[in-house]
Amino acid sequence: VFVENQVGGNGSGSVTITEADISEADNTGVYVRTNGKVTVTGVTSNYAGNPAAGRGFDIQVGESPAHVSGTVTLTNVRAEYNYGDGVLVQALRQITVKNIYVYYNYNNGIGVNLGTSGGVSILNPGGTTWNYVYYNPGGNLVINAGGDVVLQKVDMYYSTAGYGAQVNADGKVTITTMR
Predict the structure, then answer these.
(1) Which of 45, 113, 131, 166 is most buried, by CB atoms within 10 Å?
(2) Which of helix, strand or coil describes residue 161?
């Protein structure tokens, strides 16, 4: 899935991707460039990439602070066995994640890599379900945020490089139930 509505920095339409199963994309499974809101629900990206490039999800919202930027919401998202990062999101506003499963994204790929001038929330999926981030050799979870960070019910293990979770934030950091 390739969505580019940021051409010339002027595109501001929202992007919604729902119920998609992307496997074995030669480059990136889900690639989005926009200045509008991004909502991804029920999407899986597995086995994306090649030795030169590729990620499970590569989402960039907002080219520069001068442009109006939308938020990013990822719900029920899976990224497994991708050649680089499982989930990479760069945004100028809030990033919200709920019910994510990211496993073994290799070639020094980071499982979940979130960068924003705003805040980041990884929310409790509810019931006995956790947000799972496992076995990503470049690190499991990396967050760089200009605002507050909330991590709820995140389960991660086995990161061969870096930290299980690395959070750099200018705002308040709240972690509830992490293992």
Answers:
(1) 45
(2) coil
pTM to 2 decimal places? 0.93
Query: Residues 35, 11: contact at Cβ < 8 Å?
Result: yes
Predicted confidence at residue 139, as pLDDT, reads 87
Which residue's entry shows tokens 């590569």?
Answer: 58
Question: Per residue in 27-61, is it b (16+ CB within 10 Å) or e — as a string?
Answer: bbbbbbbbbbbbbbbebbbbebbeeeebbbbbbbb
**174 pLDDT band (50/70/90 cuts)?**
very high
What is the residue whose two structure tokens read 């945020």?
145
Q: Is the pLDDT of residue 123 over 90?
A: yes
d(C-alpha 62, C-alpha 85), whole Å: 20
Decide which of 4 and 167 is more confident: 167
Instruction: Give the contacts of 161 (CB within 8 A, at least 6 positions apart).
Output: 108, 137, 138, 139
Burial state string for 124-141 with b = 16 or more CB within 10 A and e = fewer than 16: bbeeeebbbbbbbbbbbb
Q: What is the mean pLDDT of residues 59-87?
A: 86
Q: How far is 70 from 78, CA to CA, in rounded Å? A: 22
